[in-house]
Amino acid sequence: MKRVLVLTFALLLSTAMFAQSRAILLNESFETLNAPQGWGVHGGGNANWNVRNTDKAGGSPCELEFFWDPQFVGTSYMSMGTYDFTGIEGVAISFKHYYENFENSASIGIATSSDGGTTWNTAWTEEFSTTGRYVVNEYVTSPDMGKSNVKVALFFNGDSYSINYWCFDDIMMYVQEENDLNLLSIDVADAISLGDAEIVFTVSNLGTEKVESFEARYQVEGQEAVTESFQVEIASYEERQVAFETPAFLFPGDYNLSIEIVSVNGSDDQDPSNNSAEKEVEVCIGVAQRIPMIEHFSSSTCFPCVYVNVDMDALTAANPGKYTYTKYPMNGPAPGDPYYTNECGTRRTYYNVNSVPQIFLDGLNVDAPVTQEKLDNRYNTPAVVNIRGAFEVEDNTIKVTADFMAYTNISNARAYISVNEKATTGNALTPSEGGNGEPEFHHIMMKMLESAQGKVMSISEGQYQRVEYSYDMSNTNMEDINDLEVSIWLQDLTSKNVYNSHYAYEYTDHCYPVRNLTHTASTDTEETFSWSAPEAGTPTGYNVIVNGELVMENTQSTSYTFDYDGEIFVAEVVALYADGKTSVGVVETFGDGINVMETAESCFSIYPNPAKDVVKISAIEGQASVVRIYNVMGMMVDEVEVNSDNMEINISDYTPGIYFFNIEGKTVKMIKD
Question: Using an 8 Å Cβ cutoff, are 12 and 40 in contact?
Fold first, then answer.
C-alpha cells in the first residue's frame, strides 16, 4: 500500500546570475528549509520538490527532496540558477543522493537550457531501481556550453509513483583545473580533551590531475603554525582523510583552529578559493564515552510504527551498550495508546511532535528508524559529561541514584530520569479496537523522576552532582516490577542537545566515586596524588587517568606518583566495581600551582587582552607577593613581584601566543599579539 504524506512547498521561479569564483560555480548544501535564491521548477512537478530537515543523502540537514505525492509522470526540472559559460567547454558536477524505491525504476539527470527553460538538453542521466545512498561525480557538456545565459537543472524523469522519495545534498558545479585540491572539512571533534590533539582533515581532488603530494599548514589560536608535506595518491573526484604528524598540545579553553592547503603537486593550487577552513574547538579537562540517547514517539494504534519498531529492535539488538532508549506512547492516532500519560505529552510538546513515528537522537530529530551509521556517528562523538546511576526496588517502590560529572562548565541544563518497562503487552489492542497488530512493545516510559520537566542543573568543570529519587510504581502502568530499566540523560534546555546518557545499573547498589582526591609535590621532579575509598560500596580497584591517558588500571593502591616536569596535569580516578560497573570520575587539576578550574573565579583582571607590549593587572588586593606567568606548554616564563594592587608587566619580549597569569592558584588567560 502506498504511503501518503501531504507536503506543500512553494519554490521561487525567478532566475538570477550568481557571483562566481574562478572555478566554483555552484556549491549548495541546503543549510535552511528555504529554497536557494534563483532556484525554480520547470516542466511540472512543482509540488513534489521540497527542502526537508533530513540527512538521508549523507550530508548534514537540510536537503532537497523529490517526493512521490502528488503523482507525477514525465520530466520535472529543478533549475539551479543561470550561469555564464562563455569560454567553458564543460563542467564537473558532484552531489550526494539517496533513492528509496517503491516499484520499477526512475531516472535523474543534469540538463541545460539557453532559452530560459523552454528547451532542455540532457548533459547526463542515469536510471536507478535499487534503494540506497549514492554519490555522483561527472564531467558534463552540452550544446549550451560556451553561451552566456544558461540554466542548469537537476531533473527527475519517470512516474513518481515508482519511488517513495529522492533526496539530494552537497551539490557542486565547477570548472576543472589541473591542480585543484578542495579542503572539504576539519575533522577534529567540537569538544576534545586537553593534551595532544590529532589534527585531522578531509580533502577532495576537484582537478583533472592525480594529486601525488600536497603541503598544508594548521594553526591553533595563539600558537605557531605547523606546516607539513603529505605524500598521497588521490585520483580525480576522490576524497581522502589525512592527519598532521605533529599534534597540537592544548590546555582547557576555546580555540580557533585553521587549516590551509599551501601547494599541490609542488606548485600553486589553481583555485585557492577552496583551500582553507576554520573551526572553533573546545578543549576540556577530559571527555567521556558518549552513549547516544534515543527518544522514540510511537503508539500501539499507529500502523506505520510497526515497521519502525521492527527496525529499531534489530538495531538495538546489534548494538548492546551503545545506546540509551525511552519510548513515549502517544494518544494518537485515535483511540491512542492506552499507556499515554501527561508526561508523554510534556515531552511531545518539548519536541513539537505532531505525528508518529518520530525519533530524536541526542535531541536531534532524525528519520525513523535510526540507521547504524547515525548511531555510530553519535557514539564516536566525545561527550563532555559522564553519567552513572543505579536503581533498587523494594515491594513496588523504586529508588534511583545518579551522578552527573562535567568536564566543562555546564549551565541551563536539565537532568532527566525515565523509568521504563522493557516489554509491555497491556497496551496492545486488537485490530477491532484500533490496534496496529503488535503484541509487545519495548522501552515504554512509565514514570519520569521527578517530573517530565527534568531537574534544573548547572555543573562546574571537574565537579559532579547527585540526584536521588524514590517512587511507588504501583501508581503507573507498570506490569512487572522485575522488568524495569532506567534511562538517565543530561540535556541543554534551549538547544535540546543531549550532553550524554546512560542506563542505570539494574537492581543493585549505586557505584559511588572516590573521595578526597588531592595532590602534593613529593620532590622537585615528582608529583603524588592520593584519594580515599568511596563513601559506600566495595570497589574492586581504581583506574587512574592523567591528561586523558590511562596510566594505572585496576590498581588496589589509593595513591599514584609520577615524574613531574612543570606542565599542567589533570588527574582523574574512577572506582571500579564488580561485573564491569564503574563510578563517574573524580578530577583534580594541578601543575606548579595552576588550577585552571578556578579561572572563572579569579579575583584579578588583565587588560588590555590581547596585548602587545604592556598589560595591567588590577584588583590583586594584596593576596600574593608573586605573579607567575606560564606558556601554553605549562612552563613558567616569568615571575614578577607584586608591588601594588594595580601594576604593569612588560611583555614586549614575549613570543606571540597564549599565556597563563597565575596568582595563588587563580589563573587568567592572556593573548600576546
Answer: yes
Measured between alpha carbons, how far is 568 from 633 in angstroms, rounded to an integer?
8
- How is residue 210 written as a grid cell? 592525480
pTM, rounded to two decimals = 0.79
Question: In the chain, what are the helix, strand and coil shares in percent, each to the nearest 5?
Answer: 10, 50, 40
Domains and CATH numbers, the chain: 24-174 (2.60.120.260), 181-284 (2.60.40.10), 293-503 (no CATH), 515-590 (2.60.40.10), 598-672 (2.60.40.3080)
Give CA–CA dist 482/502, Å, rounded: 19
Asked if pLDDT for residue 99 goes beyond 90, the answer is yes
Count of other CB atoms within 10 angstroms of residue 212: 13
- Asked if 632 contacts 223 with a C-beta cutoff of 8 angstroms, the reply is yes
Give CA separation, 363 vs 40, 295, 351, 370, 492, in Å: 33, 8, 8, 13, 9
Q: What is the pLDDT of residues 465-506, one digit of tens each?
A: 999 999 999 999 999 999 999 999 999 999 999 999 999 999
User: Cis peptide leading into 247, omega within 30 of 0?
Assistant: no
Give the closest residue to 203 by CA, choosing from 249, 140, 264. 264
Question: Which are the contacts of 579, defined by CB distance < 8 A and separation ≥ 6?
Answer: none
Query: pLDDT tens-digit profile of 527-575?
Result: 788 999 999 999 999 999 988 889 999 999 999 988 766 566 789 999 9
Query: How many Å from the N-terminal Cα to the C-terminal Cα in the chain?
Result: 67
pLDDT above 70 (res 128): yes
| Residue ranges of E strands in 473-598 | 484-492, 498-503, 515-521, 526-532, 541-546, 549-555, 559-563, 569-576, 586-590
Mean pLDDT (the chain, rounded): 90
**Burial class of residue 401, CB neighbours in 10 A (0-12, 13-18, 19+):** buried
Rounded Cα–Cα distance for residues 116 and 515 (Å): 74
**Residues linked to residue 615 through DSSP beta bridges, in sequence order:** 649
